[in-house]
Amino acid sequence: MNACPACGAAVPAGARFCPTCAAPLQAQPEQRERKLATVLFADLQGFTSWSERFGPAEVSEMLDTYFAAAIPAVERHGGQVDRLIGDAVFATAVETGTFLEINAQPDRLDLRDSHARAAVEAGVRIVVSTDAHRVHELANLELGVFQARRGWLTKADVVNTRTWPQVRKLMKA
Length: 173
Hints:
Blueprint: E1 2-3, E2 10-11, H1 47-51, H2 56-76, H3 87-96, E3 100-103, H4 113-121, E4 126-129, H5 141-150, H6 164-172
Parallel strand pairs: 3-4
Antiparallel strand pairs: 1-2
Helix pairs in contact: 2-3, 4-5
């Protein structure tokens, strides 16, 4: 029997993952493919201040009009819209009371600090999550906290800095 390098548990010969902690036991072959890509990021200048003067229905209608023009323009030039983030997500999150997540996994960190700040300014509440699948990944929380701090978020902006009764109250609001 071999020992897991992550947790030290005994593992059967030929195992690809530790049966105790699920750590990979054999180095996975790196498969990289080089591709040429063009990335377009479009931001609606002044959107946050503009949207504060209108209700969610008007903001959604304006964004729908914008996306109805922008998406076909990208597609006409051979592009593909992977996701719509930013202002559209913020408007919907405010309207539905949805919390947005700063995922603290090092290979994710999918809500940028500037987007987190814009979300809070739009009235969205943020959750910082480790997305941990192993105990040692709980330490990644620090990365999410750093991301929130870079976005100038305060304790009041982050849902999971509250007590459970306070969180439950926010979820019912």
